């Protein structure tokens, strides 16, 4: 099956465990677009703060760690990279210490301001270079790229999201269990939705896509239809992988 190349910005928002990362990468790859995981950026800054022993409750110390961090994001959807001072930290940012602290770090206004500026720069760069980008996160459609040609808010039941997170952690060799993951999913939902700055919410012009009963292929089919309906396809033919 072939699809034309993406032109413009697709914003995918939603809580953890809805399948954002998997479908965002697959969609970007299929449409010859760049890919940006903004959640990984907050995780990387959280890791940077933990490495310098900054208390996540100390906003000033965390903001200083964020400004000092040499964070570089790779936007290739097939091999996305996250580096701090030249070190690949893709695995480290998924560990329990970062997972337990990232919501607190991402609620710090100075950190959000810094990273939103960088996210917008990366989006502009990707659109200029490749024509399109798929961006995933929690405030893409509302704050980072409100002008995106397509905004989709992914949802799923808390139980389904916990099951997916548990399976992902197990596959990556991270010890966890369903009950603990379910509690963490609910905790992060409360923190992300209740923070004062850029809370998790669906943009008024977003399309809601419930992935509870959808596998990856099913979610991708729905996203491809939405991209086509918005007229964001043009030019060179791409093959879905």
TrEMBL record:
| Pfam families hit by this protein | Cytidylate_kin
Keyword Kinase carried by entry = yes
**Predominant localisation class:** cytoplasm
Q: Which residues bind ATP?
A: 14-22
**Disordered as annotated region, ranges:** 164-192
Gene Ontology biological-process annotations: pyrimidine nucleotide metabolic process
Q: Which CDD domains match?
A: CMPK (cd02020)
Top EC class per UniProt? transferase
Keywords, alphabetical: ATP-binding, Cytoplasm, Kinase, Nucleotide-binding, Transferase
- Superkingdom as given in the UniProt entry: Bacteria
User: In this protein, which residues make up the domain named Cytidylate kinase?
Assistant: 10-227
Q: Basic and acidic residues bias located where? A: 176-192
Question: Which reaction(s) does the protein catalyse, per the Swiss-Prot or TrEMBL entry?
Answer: CMP + ATP = CDP + ADP; dCMP + ATP = dCDP + ADP
Q: What Enzyme Commission number(s) does the record list for this chain? A: 2.7.4.25
- The answer on whether this UniProt entry bears the keyword Transferase reads yes
GO: which molecular function terms?
ATP binding; dCMP kinase activity
Protein family membership? Belongs to the cytidylate kinase family. Type 1 subfamily.
Checking NCBIfam families in the record gives: cmk (TIGR00017)
What's the name of the protein?
Answer: Cytidylate kinase
Organism of origin is Haloactinomyces albus
